[in-house]
Predict the 3D structure of the following.
Amino acid sequence: MRRTNIRDVAKEAGVSVATVSKALNGYQDVNPETRKRVLDVANKLNYVADTNARNMGGKVETTTIALLVNGLRSEDPSGFVFGILSGTHYICKRRNCDFMLLTTSSQEQESMPLLQLCRQKSVNGIVASGFRLGDPYIDQMKEIDLPVALIDMDEKGRNLYNVSIDNVAAAQRATEFLLKKGHRDVAMLNGTPAAEVSRKRYRGYRLAFEKLGLAPNPDYLRYCDFDEGKAIQATLELLHRFPRITAIFAASDLMAIGACRAIGQLGMVPGTDIDVVGFDDIPIAKYLFGGVSTIQQDPYQLGCVAGEAVYRMLHGETDAPLPTVDFDLILRRTAAP
Amino acid sequence: MRRTNIRDVAKEAGVSVATVSKALNGYQDVNPETRKRVLDVANKLNYVADTNARNMGGKVETTTIALLVNGLRSEDPSGFVFGILSGTHYICKRRNCDFMLLTTSSQEQESMPLLQLCRQKSVNGIVASGFRLGDPYIDQMKEIDLPVALIDMDEKGRNLYNVSIDNVAAAQRATEFLLKKGHRDVAMLNGTPAAEVSRKRYRGYRLAFEKLGLAPNPDYLRYCDFDEGKAIQATLELLHRFPRITAIFAASDLMAIGACRAIGQLGMVPGTDIDVVGFDDIPIAKYLFGGVSTIQQDPYQLGCVAGEAVYRMLHGETDAPLPTVDFDLILRRTAAP
DNA sequence: CTGAAAGCGCTTACAG
DNA sequence: CTGAAAGCGCTTACAG
């Protein structure tokens, strides 16, 4: 059962393949009657031009934008990956691009250069998420000829566009809230120095203090790799060693949840005895501990902006500025006003 | 900046393009030395064969499996879509297929036939999710020449494979648990008659009664369209009209959560005054009301099995049976043993 | 073991 | 307005 091709349509319509091609592609130098006939035949025969052949034949080209995720897991409790994915996909659909999901890992990054991967998959531009400082692809993104929108990192390159909320400002806002409430001994549970967002959130935390002529106690900082279990341990240890601590700012909700659990284990109540503010507003945040106070960011919006950035770079529309992605401080039980 | 093609490699290696092609594709009738030289040159030149040309030239073809989601939203609180997606993607990666995400809606289904969509996107097989009885694509799936794995529906077709847990058995198990606890007035909050899973879950609910020589009270059934708000209303109304009801089986966790909220609004406690069992085990289920009892199913596994089914149909491997996707009854606070 | 040539299904200058 | 022909970058019988 051969797939009907342009020759079948041409024969049936009694014209040349060139005319079929032009009619189907909306060229104006085709007799309206001829066009109609061709369109009817094509429809009747259920004809759809072969994408591969199209991409080779002439100038027309379907553009494919890939979402490249580093370290994809089978679960996505924070909804972060899904949000970015659906945002990017939405833009692809609206802009008539193909959407492809590509995943990689540190190991795979070593064995296949980014450029080769993109060519093999016929990808024209990529939205990248989940990368960390030192990942091989990060360097390659700076040099590569394809447009790249990089989420939650801060790297410069010819075709590299950075997409994220203002992590410094967000962390500063969260910390300022705690300081204004009167807290002075505010600990921070951070992710990892390898994550750009961790550096920025630390800067914001620090800035909030500095604006009041204060400085955070360096002993109050712990890296927990965004892991709930590690956050529990770190919190237990912090509160034990430094009983003066009255508030904790965590660079992710999972770590904030860990902190709250630890607080509970010590017989205290988050939001009553120790204030806790997290980051992300993941779906379960509003349900736990009567509600975890947190910085809300919208991954769907990140995905949209990133996708749109890639699309525009692909089409030379670099003038119009893209919207910034906003954030919000959501106050719930674990750190009430 | 032209992309290096096979001719560049041939020239540089001092052989014909035919030889390059064979060497790169692992054909055995190539002198090992020649092969090595070609590989080295290709590597040096960062050469990657153009996928479009490859798919046209000869028999080799990269196969693309698409996940086709009907009614994709920007959020996925149940994690169901993400799970299926990552499962299907995993299989694609393992099987060396391209993974594409396609979405549709009732409206889009009307305007573009499934076959045309698949051809336009050069898709070779599809995993379909989110469809309902009466959707135009459902009928087309039965006839289409591409292999299709359809999740959570029950349709027969030449190239159509159904993937789901045994919804009847799962619903039966949940209901049996409630009956064994002594409940006799067990209400059911169902989704919609248009969803195959709703019909099956109702059958399971019914069967559990019948096995004890009983029958469920038809007045106790409500369709809430998998919506939390509607479940709240339905539960309030049910408990008001039928005070004898002591347990509720909901065909989704969101509806179970709605039921629990309604119970709370009436000054009662889920699991103490009224037992509630849900379905899905979404991420927040374990946190709400001290834990919602529910039927757990693993969407990642569904995605893997569906992807694998498509792959096998694509390669004529229809003999080896695919694993069934299992489920589990998870008992928590809202319906304790 | 190697290569010249045909062919895959399109698009697009170009000639008419 | 229409069509013959070249060309896109590959792969694969086929001949040598």
User: Anything to note?
Assistant: The interface with chain B takes residues 1, 3, 46, 48, 50-53, 55-56, 72-77, 79, 81-83, 85-87, 89-90, 93, 98-101, 103, 113, 115-116, 119-122, 145, 283-284, 287-288, 300 of chain A (CB under 8 Å). Residues 299-314 of chain A form the longest helix (16 residues). The mean pLDDT of chain A is 92.
